[in-house]
Amino acid sequence: MRVPFFDADPMGVVHHANYLRYFENARIEWFRRRGLTWAIFTGSDLSVAVVESQVFYRSPARFDDLLLLDVTLVELQRLSMKFSYAAHEQSEGRLIVEATTLHACVGSNMKLKKIPASIREALLVPEQAGQREPNG
Amino acid sequence: MRVPFFDADPMGVVHHANYLRYFENARIEWFRRRGLTWAIFTGSDLSVAVVESQVFYRSPARFDDLLLLDVTLVELQRLSMKFSYAAHEQSEGRLIVEATTLHACVGSNMKLKKIPASIREALLVPEQAGQREPNG
Amino acid sequence: MRVPFFDADPMGVVHHANYLRYFENARIEWFRRRGLTWAIFTGSDLSVAVVESQVFYRSPARFDDLLLLDVTLVELQRLSMKFSYAAHEQSEGRLIVEATTLHACVGSNMKLKKIPASIREALLVPEQAGQREPNG
Amino acid sequence: MRVPFFDADPMGVVHHANYLRYFENARIEWFRRRGLTWAIFTGSDLSVAVVESQVFYRSPARFDDLLLLDVTLVELQRLSMKFSYAAHEQSEGRLIVEATTLHACVGSNMKLKKIPASIREALLVPEQAGQREPNG
């Protein structure tokens, strides 16, 4: 992804709150490549909530930088899943940010729910070649 | 309102797309003072959609500036309503932005609906003293 | 571009203030394909300010929609330039938003400046094939 | 603060990335009450960078909720300072989010710098009554 102008602050660097947005986009794309889209939740009493996030800001990114975002599923429990992320600046390979997010399945009443087997299986299938989308 | 750090861009001035957000906050507050909150739409097949917006950027605002936002209902038709806005910088009174937005009532199918009489009446009642909220 | 989750509001549709951001990204990309990047302004007492914007919201876009953004330079004056935009939803070709923005060159004192000849020439050169970037 | 419409996502709850923005606003206000504004950095080769953030999302907030934000300086080292935060929903007192952020002073070359004595002293002075601003 290319850093948008409006995400850089008066110091000229990406405002720190934006990285959780970049990583969400990357995570949604990661889900999509495993066949898991927003549509599977429509009509179900289930959604995936963010429970915790931790971000380490290693070096600044600037407007117009190209960032490479990596997503890894690092833990899959009965009730939760944890992802780790890294963002690198493309031209020099410089590490920009590392992060983790912890997620839980919840019902519309915000009570915890067991992660359904169908989702669990999809999460564990390795990404297939050719599923990468043009702007992914 | 005070301009947040994250709304200023690398040129040090408020990014232009933010003013539509500021004016929406001001408009929602304007509605609230007339007893019209989000709750009145809950469960109804009705919402208010933005149809058109026009913004004139007169001079730049910067991080930490205090802005005064004015909202005026300038037109109330059977199917639409139009608001105008002005943002001034508080300390010098400098005009920052002027704008208008046009709104229509729509059903969940996004078809136009007549503005209900109850809403129409509330819109035309003058704002009452003492309804201003602390951070309004 | 794919609509991010965080750009959709509680009505499930893209919040109207986001389109000015999408169009800015598209305009910056349009400039880049003509060799005009942020770097040309660095160290110069010159920047391009948004003077006016007008947006017509034709139909709603939703989270995960793919949007195609078109940018056209419609006017190039001595002191200003005007762009028009359209956003279409990719799968059905539905028109989502149309817009125009008016821009002026300003110095660091925010006074108007003539658009430099070098920029004017670059603006009028047609886009070249093969300059499209992977995620453009 | 009142939760803006545009900060709520299609699930109707505040998008998790927004809390780092709310806490930044609260922290800047916390600094201001101790006489530390952006102006003290202007012209100096010094700024305060976010090094790490951790957020625990305890329960969802919704559009139009009033949130109370607490800021506490929990650690002041030679090179870094750590703040903790809590956001509560006002009407029920429900805990929404807890967080910490770690900050360091850096020069324009992004190298670490010792926190200047003048800033260190201001940080340790207790907040004075009557300094609260109207919309703070």
- What about the largest sheet of chain A? 5 strands, antiparallel
Report mean pLDDT of chain A, rounded to a whole number.
89
The total beta strand count of chain A reads: 5
| Succession of helices and strands of chain A | HEEEEEH
**Helix-strand makeup class of chain A:** alpha+beta
**Which protein chains make the most extensive interface, counting residues with beta carbons within 8 Å of the other chain's beta carbons?**
A-D, 20 and 20 residues
Helix content of chain A: 10-25%
Gross geometry of chain A = elongated
Approximately what portion of the residues of chain A adopt beta-strand conformation?
A: 25-35%
Q: Name the quaternary structure.
A: homotetramer
Low-confidence stretches of chain A: 130-136
- How many individual helices of chain A? 2
C-alpha termini separation of chain A:
8 Å
Alpha-carbon Rg of chain A, integer? 16 Å
Core attributes:
5-stranded antiparallel sheet, alpha+beta, 2 helices, 136 residues, 5 strands, homotetramer
